[in-house]
Amino acid sequence: MEEIIYPEHLKTNLLHVIQYNIDKIEKTFNVSLSLRGNKIMFDGEAQHKKNFKKYFNSIVELSQDHTDLNENDLDMSLSLFNEGKPELIGQELTSKTRVVINGKEVFPKTYNQKKYLKAIDGNVLTFGIGPAGTGKSYCAGALAAQYLEGGLIDRIILTRPAVEAGEQLGFLPGDLDEKFSPYIDAFRDILNARLGAGTVDYCLRHGRIVASPLAYMRGKTFDSRTFVVLDEAQNTTLAQMKMFLTRIGEDSRVVVNGDIRQSDIRGPNGLADAVERLYGLPGVYVHRFERDDIVRSGLVREIIDRYEPAEC
Predict the structure, then answer these.
(1) Strand ranges of the sheet holding 209-213, from the earlier edge strand across to the other edge
(2) What CA–CA distance (Å, rounded) separates 76 from 89?
(3) Are 40 and 55 in the same domain?
């Protein structure tokens, strides 16, 4: 058993954040932790203890520089450690990418989410590929909301193929809006959180936020100052993906999200095909999320590991 004494003169909430996330830290470093006052007691194998001590000292240094760390910062720092990039912890936590809407700040929870936000901001077409729970849709939706609120765009278009878990859009009751509603609920929650439900309803009524099945994109052009998000793109056919990508107009911004491994359609899917064809083109960025980037819950990561053990 070893201990680290946290300097009492540092008036930060670091110890509170550690206490609240102690299970997550123990799992990352494979050590047992306990807090007593300003003392952190830890035990485990020698190399595991060494890794934790090195990590903890790095975030204490940030506290000494008057950087107040929160839970998102902890997630980011643990993500960097898991990716074998502990030397970037100080740099990334002191130069945070943030999304600010109506005075609210949204920080990426992982280093990969931060890279993803930067990729969307810097490219015409960005592919976000990876397992469920990595924050692909959340990041794209939050950034679209920021652009709309800041006047950088005039319209958000949210779309996805009308094939989900083996169901067809035509089998659902109601008119077109009611049929497609289940497919945009996740984005509507994101937009409500960032813009406010009243603003989102107003934008939906006046065409500033448009939710439409992918099939209804045919014949349209994504005009300038439009932010388009195609979600669940692994359920597109090759022809559907080609149709969608050829809608891209000048000065629009397009994000295509999906998990190539989880397609609900038979045969090749349009997402995998497009990534292979378009990789390396100017203005096109392919961003890959991994299982270590899952932020929805640790259980989700373990569930995916059980369903896809051959790829662990």
Answers:
(1) 209-213, 155-160, 226-230, 253-258, 125-129, 284-288
(2) 8
(3) yes
Are 166 and 257 part of one and the same domain?
Answer: yes
Q: Which of 92, 91, 86 is nearest to 113 (CA)?
A: 92
| Residues 41 and 138 both lie in one domain | no
Q: How far apart are CA 149 and CA 275, in angstroms?
A: 30
Q: Which range in 28-42, 48-62, 231-245, 290-304 is most confidently predicted, on average pLDDT?
A: 231-245
HEC profile of 123-159: CCEEEEECCCCCCHHHHHHHHHHHHHHCCCCCEEEEE
Confidence of residue 112 (pLDDT cuts 50, 70, 90): confident
pTM over 0.90: no
- Token pair in block for residue 102: 């109506």
* Last residue in a domain, options 51, 79, 94: 94
Taken as a whole, the chain contains a residue count of: 312
Looking at 64, 79, 94, the residue that finishes a domain is 94
**Percentage, residues of the chain above pLDDT 90:** 24
Query: Do 176 and 307 reside in the same domain of the chain?
Result: yes
